[in-house]
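Fold this sequence, please.
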Amino acid sequence: MLLAATLAEVHKRYPEAQQLYEGVLRDFSYAPVADSAAARLADLLMRQNKYQQAAELLLRQREKQASDLALPAEQNAEPEELKLRLALAYHGMGRSQEAEALLMDFLHQAPENPHTPRALLLLATMAEQRDDSARALTFLRQLGAMKSTPPSIRVSAQLRRAELLFRKGNYRAAAAEDQELLKESPVDSVRKVAWPRLVISLYRLDDQSRAAAEAEKYLKTYRDDAAARALFSYEEGDFFVRKKDFKQAEKAFRAARDVKNTETAAWGDIGLGKLYLIMNQPDQALNVLADVPERYPNSPLAATAYVNLGDYYFKNGQFENAFLAFQKALAVPRIETPMRALALGYLIDSADRLGMWDRAIVLARQYLQEFPGAGDAFARKIQIGIFMKNLKDYERAVDYLRELKRT
């Protein structure tokens, strides 16, 4: 029956597989095969996002395991494996604190176990979801240092380390990770992530000659990657902006804009918009930036264009226009997380400048809920108290700030 259940699962006949696994648990609950059936059923339930059912099943197995301690060890399910599955179920249910506690206990009891890499990956994922990149990097480095880590998981962990370092602006460390990946992995799916990120890191480190050489090699290898071609030209333009070579910057941004068959070409417009603002040509800049959302309304780059427009309005004291621009940025369906954090922060500050302190409080609480690990989280908490004071709600402001001081 267990074999029939496994075959049904392989062929994605999930309801049939579930019934068969449940039949094994019902008819052979006393046999070691029941532990295997329970583990596979829990995995099947979680694959279908039925985390509550999976957790209930695993808790029953835990109780059964406790009553079976008198049996020989080889006839018991691995406690570490059960604990890991329960952590996965809790994480799926949104009970992340309980999941993390189980995983940390797991690592304490089994620091070198076949399931340890999976536990470390989940801990890293939960840390990333809390915007705690430092903790995520710790788990990913620990994973990379383990001799027992399977090669595929090691590569996945290194890709994530490089991405986290890149997002934190540590381009030198990110480039080192990506160089190592390119040296060791011949797999296209890895190289097409690590290589462009290496090029961008080198441009942002102002190593333009090396960046251009790597970009040329990449584009010779992957000639059809139009998105990378546009992005490399944008980064080169940004490099020339930093060097105040505006003529070369404009040339590079126009090259990015002219790349066909990719929405990434909009980076060229964004670059031109920023360049025209620097060159004190605001009308031309606003025209270029406003054109991006019209051509790519659902692209993440539409949000980037709106944030650049809002930034211009904000810095020029046009707070109503800024507020509207940041609202539009947040309404873009595919807005990326860093840009969402930036737009929401700007929206709070725009509401403050407009005296919309009730709205600013709501937005600040939203920001703290979405980005609890942000570098300016404490400053945003203080802002809430200031907004209360501005509303002349003095008692509430004092109580709030006192409580904040205690925490």
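The radius of gyration is 26 Å. The chain has a mean pLDDT of 91.
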